[in-house]
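Escalation from tier 1.

The customer reports that the assembly of three entities below gives different structure tokens on two consecutive runs. Tier 1 could not reproduce it. I'm attaching the input and our single run for tier 2 to review.
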Amino acid sequence: MNDDLVKLTIDGIEVDVPKGTLVVDAAKKIHVDIPVFCYHPKLEPVGMCRMCLVEIGLPMRDRGTGELLLDDDGSPKLNFGRGLQTGCTVRVSEGMVVRTTTEPVKEVREDVISFLLSSHPLDCPICDKGGECPLQNLTMEYGPGVSQMDYSLKMHNEKQVPLGDLIYLDRERCIQCARCIRFQEEIVDDPVIQFHNRGRALEIVTMSEPGFDSYWSGNTTDICPVGALTSSDFRFGARPWELTPVPSLSPHSPAGANIVMSTRREAKSGGRSVIKRIVPRQNEWVNEIWISDRDRFVHHFADAPDRLQKPLIRKNGELTEVSWDEALDLVAEKLQAHSTAVAGLSGDRLSNEDLYAFQHLFRRGLGSNNLDLANRRLAGGDVTAQVGLASGSNLQDLGAGDAILVVASDLHEEEPIWWLRVKQASERGATLVVLNLRPTRLDKYADYVFRYAPGEAIVTVRQLVNAAKVETDTAVDQLTAAADTLIKANNLVAFYGYEGLTYTETDTLAKLLANLLLLKNEDKAHAGQINSGLIPVWPHNNSQGAWDMGIHPALAAGYQPVEASGMDAATIYEAVHNGGLKALYVMGADPVGDGRMPNRGQLDFLVVQELFLTETAKLADVVLPAQSWAEREGTFTSGERRVQRYYQAISPLGECRPDWQIAAQIGERLDMGKPAFAASLLFRDLAKVVPQYKGMDYRSLAKVAEQWPLVGGDDVYYGGTSYKNEAGLGQQWAAAAETDEVGLFEVADGDTAVTTNLPLVRIAALYTPGTLINHTPMLADRLAAPTLHLYADDAQIIGLQDGGETVIQVNGRSLSVQVCVNGHAPAGLALLSGVPWFPGMAEFEIL
Amino acid sequence: MAYILLRHRDIENLHKLDVYREHGGYEALQKAIDEYTPAEVIDIVKASQLRGRGGAGFPTGLKWSFIPKGPGEKYITINSDESEMGTFKDRELLEYNPHQVIEGALIAAYAVGAPQIYNYMRGEFMDIGYHFEEAILECYAAGLLGENILGSDFSCDMSAYYGAGAYICGEETALLNSLMGELGQPWAKPPFPAIEGLYFKPTVVNNTETLANVPPIITNGAEWYTSMGTEKSKGPKIVCLSGHINKPGNYEIVMGMTFRELLFSGEYGGGIPNGKEFKGLLPSGGSGPVITADALDAPISYEGLDVYGSVMGSASVVVMDETVDMVWAAMKMEHFFKHESCGKCTPCREGTYWMDQLLHRIYEGEGTLQDLDVLKSVANRIGGRTLCALGDFAINPVLGTVRHFSNEYEAKIKK
Amino acid sequence: MFGEILRGLGTTFKHMLQPPVTIQYPEIKRPVRPRFKGRHVLERYDNGLERCIGCALCAAACPADAIFVEASENTDEERYSPGERYASTYEINMLRCIFCGYCEDACPTQAIVLKHNYEMSFYDRTSAIYTKEKLLVDLAEGAEPAPRQVEPGTYDRAIPEMEDPV
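Tier 1 run:
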């Protein structure tokens, strides 16, 4: 028998569960429902709602001998204590007997419900939670059926209290279970809401300015067991039973957050089905049951009124609506005509199918390798293919004895889900080492924080890696100590980003970290081992997929080197400017708006495939309207190399077509054969070409397994919002190091520290303005306005003051910025947030 | 008989350290440190059968023995959040005999090996707290607090803390939460404070009066102490007498005295004023059920009121004469509990509100017979199901008055 | 035999003198039973505000899926109904409706009521869809129309005050 298992009996059914399991969870394992309000399997139990009171008996022992006392019939004598006990706070013990169906238990459930209803308003007809409300469900299931409460004695309270601009509180509906408060405190460490007052006047208040200032606020509406917390996005939007749940993926999350889109047809939108809300979908390997507010609220671009709906061709200087055939014919003709001087730039928000079709068109149809990401920031996809986080890994498994290294990334702003999982791993005991040129929110949980001077990122990481190569017993400094911990850790996960780094520097960084992972400690390297490996903090949801699909001048799909490398993005922009290129095809990117390409230069032909008429599209000869991710099927690959599937949620807008189809239809005109009939078939084709995706198809990506804790299923109490994952957990593809021997990477020397007066680095902000987020009006007030962060002394030298406004010249563009001197910036470094990304460090001038 | 706890009534200026020391002050501490090991101190307190004076009556020595042995962070917390209706005993000790409390706490700290003592006083004790804080400063100056107390290896610090005025913070876990700067709400036990208390370290929470009992026990021995009182309730007890009584105030009695003697003896209460008849009394402020004339001969002890369905609690005796409207009294008490419920657990938060609403309605003559039934049923549904004991206390005003004075309720019911 | 003929004619003559049972519809309309379930109306309160709170329970109850409701939030500047929410779109497809009255049963505010009008005929399918404008009853004498501007705080309940269930 396993020593870590405890045998107990619940309602006559024997069950073995791990030590330390709570009685409610043990019951859940055998599908015995113990109803709860305040308990949530992801939160620490508090035992305050009293709904889970059950009879718990412990076997009695003789005080002298410690022998079990037996009844006359030979069964152990049980001590049921003086009263009922809360199943959510009591942990299982050997021989425990739990009774959940006896009269006293039934009575107490009825009583707790009648107590709760004694001051809960009967708003169900209009309540947003009505229909998926645990209180409603439990009332139907366990309630007394009649009320003794006289309606005239009911407590009345404020109905519309905006906790912030995203979350509304209805004080009357709140049942004071504290799930939201505990979530903010325990899970995401943003304790911005708290209880105020006491007794029946106990109420939730926000203590931040602006109100409820957290990137996670939307999750509280999911776990709220009543309709007390509602999001301004969904408030009075629809009744839950009218909604169609469609499993999908966040189009922003490089970690691959799983979501469910609730859609319904709407008269306001002319009978189109629209996305009414987004809720998380359980995937314990990816996002558990949480999503950030960016993933939740930034979906309105899909239904935006200014979406492109018809192909446009420039005629007499004006973009004019034309038919698809006309547009495609023109594009095919022009691309073919210029096939010696053609290039393709793509965004990394698009699906694998789109990206594959795009590169296929260029490589096969046009014979060109001039392919790159329009706004490439982070190199190392090829390195990740070798030593990336091993398949089968789950960041949730990291804990004591493991180590996590985060270099040059502000995870909280770039990908909150990874921030959360790293933070939780650190709380479970994993050693966290953070290297950056400025303080970030991860520092608080880090065991070692190293701050390098601007331009010295690579030098510092090299020192760390070199220190790890040397076996030491006595660490001479912190860096050696950290290196020692990293190399000796059971598992090692390394995250790297691009803050303040150029593309080339990120490549070096990736290779250095790969070498760290490949270092052998007692004949064993971390690379290739489950729960170890490299994770690039990609800027977008499918940057990994773009690498896999071969959106790269030198690497074709599946990381196969091409014979002759094409132009990379920087060269393409250069060639646009000096006439080296005649035709450019931009798919899902806005290089002009992002400041990468000042104008169309000497291009003869520019075709842009987009959702909106972006700055680039305005200059185009042909604009092709693409479908948003919500209108079609596809796959994204996360930074952990998990290939996941999303499904069509809403009907296509206007004449929009999927990106892959457009590319394939152009290809058809270049004699590349008929386009695939469906995304699934295209994926099947690409899985044949990309060795890493071998064996994957839409069916295998849709496989699910039972996940623990069980939430969102048939139970009626863990939050009505559908969490259950019935649409697929995705598949992680294996990094090379898992099967083959991978040699150390050669890293070129020549780290040159940039020396400027006051270098400027662009830092990430979750709500940085952009093509998609700008269409979410509710986030308008939270969008990161361009802000210049300065160290107090530096600010004084330049003559800027906190809160002031100024205009600066950076990278040849003038920007109006707010000045912020609040300690975020280290001495000798200026930080710029809320603007499009630019590589490395820049100098700036005050105008 | 000489006072054991309210010694300042015999000795003037006892709150001054030199006066206190002149009269044998801190000799018990000296004795404990010099003559006994910590374990022996606990044994003596166990043998004295001293029980908690805050109301629950948990054996003090047993409580101390739950604290894990050996070094480590541990805390003694003095519970001076005396908020029960009609209780005013601790404030007298803190104001006039603070050193006896400090000495008791130091002995406790020595016994369990705690290097830090907190005194949690209710927020309204601002003025009384000054006296106590002065006493702490005197002790520091005299080497009775701080490093190497009385020249021994034993070191201990003490500081005073004021609550913000919440009844619930008299509950030990709520008190600890409040002391940590959290919302004053109790937590579900386990974990018990003895294992995970203040700052998640083992903590003893003792009532002020309980600790004042400790020095005389150490000085005079457990046998001396057990010679006083009844079988299950040993030693002296301060009774707070108030209400319709000629001589209200604190009285130190030896447990076992009857309520009749307390109320009517000239030495104590001196009878009911204005020749009115006795109607009932609350033996434990608002939290114990009311008792009537038939229970007057019961002894004042932890077990004495068991047969009458009530408890001694903190012995805050509120006397009510024939003029008192029992529905009014229940309404006032229930309002108190509604106001003081922390709101954490459902039955107490919702139930006290509900009962308060119903009592108001009945008192105002708007109630129906059904309301009375609902009132009783609500009270019964709270009992035994709440997170802490407040819920169990909160139903006593209703259940006690309904049991003895149901006629008064019925008289108010709308015809 | 003659007797029989007379008897028969007697019946004939008797009925000749009685008023006819048929009526001249549509000039004359036969009254319907009080519980007759005819065309729906959306009721108003006496003050002119709409009863409907847009809860869509009627749509949920409808076995023929004939009702479509879309709700929006009331504001004090533009108030349609006393609660927090009103139906911004309310449509009944009369071709689908089977006049079962479940919607009436489901309605928590007695907003939708099947009245006595049975005169529904359409030339096309679109006109069979009765919109909110068609369904709302006329304003009572002296009542103000909805939406209207009201003093903040006049209507602070989520749904109009509910009475104790009987």
